[in-house]
Write a structure and sequence with these properties.
Length: about 120
């Protein structure tokens, strides 16, 4: 579902599925934008391995967006809007903390509040 939506919504940004980024495989990656999109299930809740993986990918120059499975299934339009913002470099996707995963609701909340958006974004990155 997300694979097709990415390809249709962003034809100028070539996303690859299960792209190798040694020693990992990214769920989706746009090489030109150095953007990785990970879709996580419940087994990833508070995962130290995910946090370490994200930090390693960021050290290698990648930006990482993480979404929960239910967000992709129930709110694909919001997920795509979040990706659009990241591709336009208006949102710097940075430091990942296991207790505050970058989610659809946190991004939407930050983007809806122009006066407080920058402070809000920093709080969950």
């Amino acid at each position: 579902m997300l694979w097709r939506a990415l390809r249709e919504s962003f034809p100028r940004h070539r996303f690859r599925r299960q792209h190798p980024v040694p020693p990992y495989f990214a769920d989706f990656a746009c090489l030109a934008a150095k953007l990785i999109i990970e879709v996580d299930g419940g087994q990833h809740t508070e995962s130290e391995r995910d946090a370490e993986r994200t930090q390693n990918l960021e050290r290698a120059g990648w930006r990482v967006l993480r979404f929960w499975n239910h967000e992709v299934l129930q709110h694909i339009d919001v997920v795509l809007s979040t990706v659009r913002v990241a591709l336009s470099n208006r949102l710097h996707v940075g430091h990942y903390r296991p207790d505050t995963c970058l989610t659809v609701s946190s991004v939407c909340s930050a983007l809806r509040r122009p006066g407080r958006g920058a402070a809000k974004r920093r709080s969950f990155l």
